[in-house]
Amino acid sequence: MSRKIVHHTVALCALVVTAGCGGDAPVATLDRASFIDTYVELRIAALQRGLGTVGDALRDTILTSQGVTEAQLVEFAEVHGTDLEYMRDVWAEVTDRLDAVSFEPVSPEPSPTGG
Fold first, then answer.
1. Contact, 70 vs 63, CB < 8 A?
2. Which of 1, 16, 21, 36 has the most Cβ atoms closer than 10 angstroms to its Cβ?
3. Entry pTM
4. Angle, alpha carbons 22-27-31 (nearest 5°)
5. Domain chopping of the chain, boundaries
6. What is the pLDDT along the chain (115 residues), one digit of tens a residue?
7. CB-neighbour burial class of residue 76 (10 A; exposed 0-12, middle 13-18, buried 19+)
8. Cα 1 from chain centroid?
């Protein structure tokens, strides 16, 4: 193979790789800090109640107070989910923040029937 062909092949490969990494990648509308803040608030609410997840009404209240939608949380996970290092750092920060919280269980609402 001549040097000219090799140089053109290398240049073409570089162009294809660069184009593949271009601006077509999806961008999350939610920033990292907002994702972490919201996720931590949702987890604290669940843990205080001894639950794995919060119910719809409480989740909606927390999302509204954070100014975030469920769709934005999902979008963030979809956009960044394949970047393992980035998501490892996100979950490490979530874990650090949750570890720093002293949990006080929330008493359940009293039943209107008294039992």
1. yes
2. 36
3. 0.68
4. 135
5. 28-99
6. 444 333 333 333 333 333 345 456 678 889 999 999 999 999 999 999 989 899 999 999 999 999 999 999 999 999 999 999 999 999 999 999 999 988 777 766 555 555 5
7. buried
8. 49
